[in-house]
Amino acid sequence: MDCKQQTDTLNELTVGAVGRLLGLRLPSSGTICCPFDDHQDKRPSFSTFGGGIRWKCFGCNRTGGAIDFVSTFLDLDFASAKKWLLSKTINLEGAIQVPRPVQHGYFNHNQTKAVAESTPDHEVFAAYLMRCPILPSGLSYLAARGITKTTVEMFSVGQVTSNRQLLNQLVCLYGFERVATAGLYTATSTGQRSIPVFNDNSLVFPFIEKNKITYLQARIFERTKAPKWRNLARRSRRIYNADAIDGKAAKIIICEGVIDTLSAVELGLTPVGLLGVSAQLNSHQMTSLRNKLVCIMLDWDAAGEGRATELKQTLLQYGVASHRQERPSSTANDLNDFLRQKREIQ
Ligand SMILES: [Zn+2]
């Protein structure tokens, strides 16, 4: 593919697809508030047209295709914007391809303006975790699932007793904005009226990447119809135990969620955990798996099988061969079931 062909092919990418690569959610048709920082757009002026591949802002009068969008959004010249876009979309065969939609970035409905996600606030997360040491109740819950104290310590699992009090301390140290941006308050919270995202007594699982905490997830214990797992507000979910990918292990297990990841560790494996259906490894993580044996241990139910098939295909697009592990026992639906059966925990 020559230079001109590359430009033409890149300019066939939809605004929505380019938005995903930038962590923005942009529509394939219709009008939203201008996504560019230097245009404080009060009324929606940014439109996409031409089947979603052209865009124009009637407020700041900028217009173009995929490369122009990257150039404007990242403040790069055309050649650098093209290079950036190419690096995100070229596959092993040299073809240009956009990753499937993933839950990155978020859409701020109040402003109907796409917002890029800030980098994780390691300092605020560390200060949070430091103030929530695990309690006997948390340890016994995990023990009942076959997770030993050694693993709990290795993964720095915490437990929060009084969220409101803890977050007040952090607000004193870092200010409300920073604590809210870290995702520890609900999206609608304000300095006057704030609601923590996690419940009291929850177990808190830090996601640690290169010795820094990049995300937190909590397992709540209240009897409620709401999900038992709580995530940070307006932050993309990350891969649990992601560093395993860059580690020495020759074989990597891909499983589902925190508990199965810890279960895999208990079983002597080297796992990473995907959170939810939409969670995906990023392109760096995908390509790092090329020289590893990859074994998929997503849940052994209809949904898990479907996801496993999809994941196998996505991995292949990155040149990664993988193997779908068969159900390890006739009654195990997930890795934690298997671990408890092995340890004879009822
Ligand atoms: Zn504009």
Our Rg estimate from Cα atoms comes to 22 Å
Query: What is the correct CATH architecture of the largest domain?
Result: Alpha-Beta Complex
Secondary structure: helix percent: 25-40%
Element order, helices and strands? HHEEEEHHEEHHHEHHEEEEHEHEHEH
Question: What count of structural domains?
Answer: 3
Q: Give the CATH level 1 class of the largest domain.
A: Alpha Beta
Could you tell me the CATH topology label of the largest domain. DNA Primase, Chain A
How many helices? Answer: 13
Show unreliable segments. 102-115
Tell me what portion of residues adopts beta-strand conformation. Answer: 15-25%
Q: Which cofactors or ions or other ligands sit in this model? A: zinc ion
Query: Which of globular, elongated, flat, extended, rod-shaped describes the shape?
Result: globular
Average pLDDT metric: 87
Side by side, the strands of the main sheet go: 1-2-3-4
Structure characterization notes:
With 346 residues, this protein is α+β, with helices and mostly antiparallel strands. The protein has 3 domains: 3-115, Alpha-Beta Complex (DNA Primase, Chain A), CATH 3.90.580; 122-231, DNA primase, catalytic core, N-terminal domain (DNA primase DNAg catalytic core, N-terminal domain, Alpha-Beta Complex), CATH 3.90.980; 242-342, Dna Topoisomerase Vi A Subunit, Chain: A, domain 2 (3-Layer(aba) Sandwich). The protein has helices spanning 3-10, 15-21, 66-74, 78-89, 122-130, 136-144, 149-154, 163-174, 176-181, 257-266, 283-288, 302-317, 335-342, and strands spanning 30-32, 46-49, 54-57, 63-64, 106-108, 113-115, 158-159, 203-209, 212-219, 229-231, 251-256, 271-274, 293-296, 322-324. Strands 1-2-3-4 form a 4-stranded antiparallel β-sheet, with helices on one face. A 4-stranded antiparallel β-sheet has the order 7-8-9-10, with helices on one face. The chain has a 4-stranded parallel β-sheet with strand order 12-11-13-14, with helices on both faces. The chain is globular. The protein starts with a helix and ends with a helix. 36% of the residues are buried. Mean pLDDT is 87; it is low at 102-115. Bound molecules: zinc ion. Residues 34, 36, 39, 41, 45-46, 57, 59-60 line the site of zinc ion.
